[in-house]
Design a protein that fits this description.
Layout: E1 4-7, E2 11-13, E3 46-55, E4 61-70, H1 72-79, E5 94-95, E6 99-102, H2 114-131, E7 137-146, H3 158-167, H4 176-198, E8 209-218, E9 239-246
Parallel strand pairs: 7-8
Antiparallel strand pairs: 1-2, 1-6, 3-4, 4-8, 5-9, 6-9, 7-9
Helix pairs in contact: 2-4, 3-4
Length: 247
């Protein structure tokens, strides 16, 4: 039985579980004080990346992969305009016309099928860069939102312990399992987008300054589409959806 599939068009994939590496930046209050680093006046524009992970006000896990190009002295105030902790209205974003579906308790794409998955999502980054090709500055947000249905929690299955380890909890309470499962579904798709972006970094050189935030969030058992009716156990809820917006 298929474990994972991408749609539209529909491509069946088989999935298996393995660990996902997460990079977390400590909150400012947790970072030891250190001497500030002076940025040279003749600094050359470069590409930088930063990673963040935190809980939202709704207790969802959110991670952000921020890639930016320019001089640090100029980019620091520029990036402060874009709050990665904010809430967002999906209606104000463009929905990408392809999505990833998973079967119950599956969150991984096998390595031998990631090339097909990358091909499915690669046009998104082309669209982002081309949409502002004539401008000197670019900021874009790509939202990667994972969801799941309310299938019974598999306490005795390996996936339960894997996700428990990732979350660094002794046990899941309330909807923690569903939130964690949906988050790592989103992580899997976001890692594809990050890989694509790494291969397109030359596109940043077309701008004086540019930044892209890939915002990853697990929405648990929240409905993927508020206008649709779903069952408690529903394949259409086991999905990761992608949205984007340029500024």
């Amino acid at each position: 039985m298929n474990k994972y599939f991408l749609a539209f068009p529909l491509i069946a994939l088989f999935a298996s579980g393995c660990n996902v590496l997460q990079v977390r930046e400590l909150p400012a209050s947790d970072i030891p004080a250190k001497k500030s680093t002076r940025i040279p006046a003749n600094e050359v524009p470069s590409i930088f990346t930063k990673s963040y992970q935190f809980k939202t006000g709704q207790s969802y896990t959110r991670a952000v992969e921020r890639t930016f190009y320019g001089k640090q002295v100029e980019m620091q105030p520029e990036l402060s305009k874009y709050d990665i902790r904010k809430g967002f209205n999906i209606e104000q974003y463009n929905k990408y016309n392809k999505a990833s579906f998973f079967q119950t308790d599956v969150y991984k794409i096998p390595d031998d099928l990631k090339v097909a998955a990358i091909d499915l999502f690669a046009p998104l980054l082309d669209t982002v860069f081309l949409s502002l090709q004539s401008k000197k500055a670019l900021h874009a947000e790509i939202l990667v939102l994972g969801y799941t249905d309310e299938a019974a929690i598999p306490y005795d299955a390996p996936v339960y312990n894997e996700l428990l380890t990732f979350s660094k909890q002794r046990e899941f309470v309330n909807n923690d399992y569903y939130n964690t499962l949906s988050f790592y579904r989103a992580v899997e798709v976001a890692q594809l987008l990050t890989s694509i972006l790494n291969n397109k970094k030359d596109a940043f050189l077309e701008f004086e300054k540019a930044s892209i935030d890939i915002i990853i969030e697990g929405r648990g058992i929240e409905y993927p589409d508020a206008k649709r009716t779903y069952e408690l156990e529903d394949d259409k809820r086991k999905i990761t959806k992608v949205y984007w917006k340029v500024y």
